[in-house]
Amino acid sequence: MTRRSLPGHIGFIPDGNRRWAGDRGLSKEEGYQFGLDPGLALFELCKSRGISEVSVYGFTQDNTKRPSPQVQAFRAACVAFVTEIARRGAAVLVVGDDKSPLFPGELQAYRTRQGEGIKVNFLANYGWEWDLDGLKEGQIRSSDVSRLDLIVRWGGGRRLSGFLPVQSTYADFYVLDEHWPEFRPEHFDRALAWFKKQDRTLGG
Questions:
Q1: Per residue in 113-137, pLDDT tens?
Q2: How far apart are alpha carbons 31 and 39 in whole angstroms?
Q3: How crowded is residue 26: how many other Cβ atoms within 10 Å of its Cβ?
Q4: Do 196 and 3 touch, CB atoms closer than 8 A?
Q5: What is the pLDDT of residues 189-204, one digit of tens each?
Q6: Where are the alpha helices (DSSP H) in 33-184?
Q7: How many CA atoms are closer than 13 Å to the CA of 73, on its beta-carbon side?
Q8: Smallest Cα–Cα separation from 204: which of 170, 168, 167, 166?
């Protein structure tokens, strides 16, 4: 059995924006804009801690079934996040169905990895079935994303929600009950401390 002090690749599921907004008397779509600053803060933390690769759930194909104002709001927040981390020195790859009109056109240039520095794989209009359907053409559509070591989810949900099923096979899964807009640096510290204690046999 082995233990790693630091995960090489972390996945983040930033959930709970709508519930957070509702608790404060805001509309559900207003919640998404409050997820932007936490995302940028977490990105900077990952850079400072020496994390080499992160994957972030932006929105799924299923999410686009929500009311139009919500879809517009989370698409705008995703574009703003990707644009800013690219400016701050991330090597960005956007993974998702770009053949759909629901894929933000502003992110098209990032369908191949752009930039240098910490790798950030951002899932936009992503679906696990869409991903695996790439096998018909020889490989999964997220083939440029490496195996995950740790997945951290906010919002209390104990499920992957279709998050990179192939890369998640041997990932440890840490759940925070706080909603994503309530992000604090100690959430990240707690996840890393927990990961350090895990025995990672990878099936061996």
A1: 999 999 999 999 999 999 999 999 9
A2: 13
A3: 14
A4: yes
A5: 999 999 999 987 666 5
A6: 36-49, 68-87, 128-132
A7: 18
A8: 170
- Number of residues in the chain: 204
Query: DSSP characters for 175-198?
Result: E--S-GGG--HHHHHHHHHHHHT-
In the numeric block, which tokens belong to residue 101? 């009109």
Nearest of 71, 84, 87 to residue 28 by alpha carbon: 71
Q: Compute and round to an integer the Cα radius of gyration of the chain.
A: 16
Kindly report, residue by residue over 4-32, the tens digit of the pLDDT. 689 999 999 999 999 999 999 999 999 99
The residue to which tokens 């240098």 are assigned: 116
Question: Given the structure tokens 């899932």, which residue do they identify?
Answer: 123
Does residue 150 register a pLDDT over 90?
A: yes
Place of tokens 């995950």: 148
Q: Specify burial of residue 24 (Cβ count, 10 A radius: 0-12, 13-18, 19+).
A: exposed
The model's pLDDT over 80-90, given as tens digits with 9 standing for 90+, comes to 999 999 999 99
